[in-house]
């Protein structure tokens, strides 16, 4: 059962609002696709849940909040994060 759930969970990279690190987040919902002139392509927003992440030696960031984020995009930044 747990194995099946892992296969279904889709993750993306976002920036944490608290520690500003690039972190993994689970996609909860997806909104409609939107065209954006500035990237000459499509973007899709959704709600994601930030996963617990390390911020340094033996320290973890406790920010695991649900945030609105870009979950699909034709554009990404130098870090490989959708923008
Ligand atoms: Zn963080």
Short description, anyone?
The protein has 83 residues and is mostly beta strands. The protein has one helix at 2-8; strands at residues 11-15, 22-36, 41-50, 53-56, 59-61, 66-73. 7% of the residues are buried.
Describe the 3D structure.
With 83 residues, this protein is mostly beta strands. The protein has one domain. 8% of the residues lie in helices and 54% in strands. It has one helix at 2-8, and strands spanning 11-15, 22-36, 41-50, 53-56, 59-61, 66-73. A four-stranded antiparallel beta sheet has the order 1-2-3-6, with no helix packed on it. A hairpin with a 2-residue loop joins strand 4 and strand 5. The longest helix is centred in the N-terminal third of the chain and has 7 residues, at 2-8. It is globular, with a radius of gyration of 14 Å. It starts with a helix and ends in a 10-residue tail after the last strand. 7% of the residues are buried. The mean pLDDT is 92. It binds zinc ion.
Q: Quick check: average pLDDT?
A: 92
Largest sheet properties:
4 strands, antiparallel
Strand order in space, largest sheet: 1-2-3-6
Give the overall form. Answer: globular
Query: From the helix content, strand content and strand pairing, which structural class follows?
Result: mainly beta
Strand content: over 45%
Number of domains: 1
Helix content: under 10%
SSE run: HEEEEEE
How far the N terminus sits from the C terminus, by CA atoms, comes to 34 Å
């Amino acid at each position: 059962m747990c194995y099946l759930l892992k296969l279904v969970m889709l993750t993306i990279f976002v920036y944490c609002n608290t520690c500003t690190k690039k972190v993994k987040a689970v996609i909860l919902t997806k909104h409609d696709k939107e065209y954006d002139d500035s990237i000459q392509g499509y973007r899709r927003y959704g709600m994601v849940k930030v996963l617990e992440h390390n911020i340094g030696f033996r320290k973890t960031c406790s920010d695991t909040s649900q945030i609105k984020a870009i979950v699909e995009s034709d554009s990404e930044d130098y870090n490989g994060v959708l923008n």
